[in-house]
Design brief:
The chain is α+β, with helices and mostly antiparallel strands. Helix content is about 25%, strand content about 30%.
């Protein structure tokens, strides 16, 4: 059974919280607005560490924009460059990043992908309030940007990772 999934997010527009930290009010205002959006089968929000500016770094929270959506002026609508993502799930704030990175790297090598460092890693909470009540925690999807590995994988690596070849 594979524990890594591949998703493609198309280029789209997203509502942005702007860069902030939990506790400074920026993300809390966005969360209040976000909580008023209708809940669907899949979460439409993504959180990432934004280091695009030397002056201000922090978290940036995004939400998929739909035409006609009522968005407060303080939250800009930005263009989002999509692409392929490898997605892994774990318990929020209890993830062993070394184990996750190892599993992800093996999956990418075995399947002809590599990390795309030109785009940020994303995260989102996938647990509904009802499920959280039963579980006692929240699950988080970790979105790793990827692309096809154009260098290819040598036969030795493929045989090492998959002895049945």
């Amino acid at each position: 059974m594979q524990s890594i999934r591949i998703y493609e997010i198309p280029d789209c527009r997203m509502v942005s919280s702007g860069v902030g930290m939990f506790g400074d009010g920026t993300l809390e205002k966005f969360e209040k607005w976000l909580s008023m959006q209708p809940r669907g089968i899949y979460p439409k929000d993504f959180l990432y560490w934004d280091s695009s500016s030397d002056e201000k770094q922090g978290f940036n929270w995004l939400y998929v924009y739909e035409e006609g959506m009522s968005v407060p002026d303080e939250f800009p609508i930005v263009n989002f460059h999509g692409g392929l993502y490898a997605v892994a799930t774990d318990i929020d704030q209890k993830t062993n990043k070394e184990v996750m990175d190892s599993e992800l790297n093996i999956f990418l090598i075995d399947n002809g992908f590599e990390r795309d460092t030109s785009r940020p890693e994303l995260g989102n909470i996938i647990t509904s309030p009802h499920a959280k009540e039963t579980l006692g925690y929240e699950q988080m999807n970790y979105w790793f940007p990827i692309r096809k590995n154009h260098e290819g994988v040598d036969e030795h690596t493929l045989r090492f990772r998959n002895p049945t070849l």
